[in-house]
Write a structure and sequence with these properties.
The chain is an alpha/beta fold and 300 residues long. The protein is 36% helix and 23% strand.
């Protein structure tokens, strides 16, 4: 099993014929993703050859869905056009839109998130690495070679870089799915959404939650864990050394007073039983120790 993305997913790429779209479409195909088409109204009717796979280009998301049965789109459209691209996908009724684009104005994100929600389209992102279910499908820019092994860890992360690092550190154990939700002030799929999905996934044994300074997403995730998550959760919070009042990396990572600090988030998670690592490597060790302890109990 996996969450949101499986081997059955049929994927369109909006912006496939651009430089980033071409590069990452090739990588997604190599990872086994069933990419059934690209979308570019100026190049509709053409095909693009990716090694041994010829991928058709459609004029719209709705046209691509009608021709292929696609249920996922990955958006590599430049920031000024991203809002229109997501609205087009939502209008077509696509189930999942993975918005890789960074630098989208917040008011555009707020608008397309609300529009998509009303039409039943799940958004992952924007400004995110996407999601991967190893051995099944990869929608976005997560390097598949760092997580080629399927396993029983579920990962949800604000940070793309830390997604990659934890997946690399735990590559021998493997993942059911890893979701990079993005670090902008407004995102579609949240920590809470992923926690709920992993809780309901029978093949996820343990959840890793990566947060960072700014906002209150991790505190809200802690409340969710207390209320409905029965599986073990291991956490990591980036930004313990960040100076107060400075934006660090992601647009959402800004601290004001004690609100949004790494320490406040760590305390909130620990208060509901989440072990929080002080470094990514320590976090990986906590994961392995917890899995080993769980299996010892099961075997005994």
């Amino acid at each position: 099993m996996a969450i949101f993305l499986t081997k059955e997913s049929k994927v369109l790429v909006q912006g496939m014929t651009g430089g980033e779209g071409m590069k990452h479409t090739r990588r997604m195909l190599a990872a086994g993703t069933d990419i059934v088409g690209g979308v570019n109204p100026r190049k509709a009717g053409r095909t693009v050859d990716f090694d041994e796979r010829a991928v058709p280009v459609f004029g719209s998301v709705s046209e691509g869905m009608a021709a292929t049965g696609a249920d996922v789109t990955v958006v590599f459209v430049p920031p000024p056009f991203a809002k229109a691209a997501v609205i087009e996908a939502a209008d077509a009724g696509i189930g999942l839109a993975v918005v890789i684009t960074e630098g989208i104005p917040v008011h555009d994100t707020v608008a397309f998130q609300a529009y998509a929600r009303e039409r039943g389209t799940r958004i992952v992102g924007p400004n995110c690495p996407g999601l991967i279910s190893p051995g099944q499908s990869n929608a976005g820019i997560i390097p598949a070679d760092i997580a080629a092994k399927p396993g029983r860890i579920g990962l949800v992360s604000k940070s793309g870089t830390l997604t990659y690092q934890l997946m690399y550190e735990l590559r021998e154990t493997g993942f059911s799915s890893a979701v990079g939700i993005g670090g902008d002030p407004v995102v579609g799929t949240t920590h809470i959404d992923c926690l709920a999905a992993f809780e309901d996934d029978p093949d996820t044994e343990l959840i890793v939650l990566i947060g960072e300074i700014g906002g209150d997403a991790e505190e809200r995730a802690a409340a969710c864990i207390a209320e409905r998550v029965t599986k073990p959760v291991i956490g990591y919070i980036a930004g313990f050394t960040a100076p107060e009042g400075k934006t660090m990396g992601h647009a959402g990572a800004i601290v004001s007073g004690s609100s949004g600090t790494a320490e406040a988030k760590k305390k909130a998670l620990e208060a509901v039983g989440v072990r929080v690592g002080s470094t990514p490597s320590e976090t990986a060790r906590l994961v392995l120790d917890r899995l080993a302890a769980s299996r010892d109990v099961t075997h005994n």
